[in-house]
Amino acid sequence: MTSVAIASGFWLARNPAPDGDDVRATIAALQRDAQTDRFARAIQPRQFEFPADHGPHNDYQTEWWYYTGQLFDAQGRHFGFQLTFFRRALLPPDAQVPASSSPFAFRQVYFAHFALTDSSSGEHVAFERYSRNAAGLAGAQSTPFAVFVENWSATGVEGDAAHVRLRAAQDGYEIDLTLRNTKPIVLHGDQGLSQKSHQPGNASYYYSMTRMETQGVVRTPRGQFNVVGSSWLDREWFTSALEDDVAGWDWLSLQLDNGEEVMFFKLRQKDTGATTFAKGTWIAADGTTTLLRGDAAQLEPLAHWRSPYSGSVYPIRWRLRIPARALDVVISARIPDQEMRLSQRYWEGAITAAGTHRGLGYLEMTGY
Questions:
Q1: Nearest CA-CA partner of 20 in 129, 117, 105, 162
Q2: Which domains does the chain possess?
Q3: How much is the pTM?
Q4: Which of 26, 150, 179, 242 is 20 to 30 A from 226, comparing alpha carbons?
């Protein structure tokens, strides 16, 4: 899932480059429009091709590279991080535009979110950047792998998307991490086709690297910390929008102590909060997967936190049950305030799981 509720739009800027406020206004205003049908859609399963699919899919309207992880220093100090890169097409691939010699001409806009949770200090910070896919300001490629927005980046070590270096820094907070995938790539849904409703085309192509050994450096105003841990990559691309009656979603990933993982999400109805659609994936220790249909898992809120900044009320303790896997755990936020107060507001943060299984993961909540 994504941390930004975005749909379609039509906009192209060429000379001069828009400033940050212009780009933010453009992204925030994007709504479903007639041009959506001029982009490719995720309708049926496809054959994934690597390394090509690690790079951009410009025929689709929206795409992201979504890294999250939990890290520890030698004294046990805990950090959670998120570094996400989003691509958004501003024109359909068949649109005709006047030829331009400007190096700032572009069809794609990229934006990125960087967040860091320092559990010991009870602090969570979040930052965002926007830029055009032109003049070396932002972009993505498959070979050698790279995705970047200005100087925030994920780059392949020797070009490999399964072995990457993540770098981001702002206002005294910084990560410089190396991630190496240790399990087979996971295709979610039906061979990588992940439905978001019962309507055909409201779906994404979705794969993950669910267990990425991580090491590197975290810097905050409190000092520099050498850390190790584990990360998770989500990759999705699509052309679709949520149904009109959907308020938002709850999504989680868990890395369990026994070497297994689980991803699960559910969409919530606006008026009642009832689940309108839910799916997930169980990943065994050897990398084999099992599709979790909506009735295979129950995710129930147990406790809430009210943001003093936005007034939003978020569930920060949950009970997750998957009877077929004998899993019954309580999921808790590392700290309550992991609200992303950016151009689009949502909650995303580090979690723990305890019960029949133990593990670490990340939780995302939108529409509260």
A1: 129
A2: 20-365 (2.40.370.10)
A3: 0.90
A4: 150
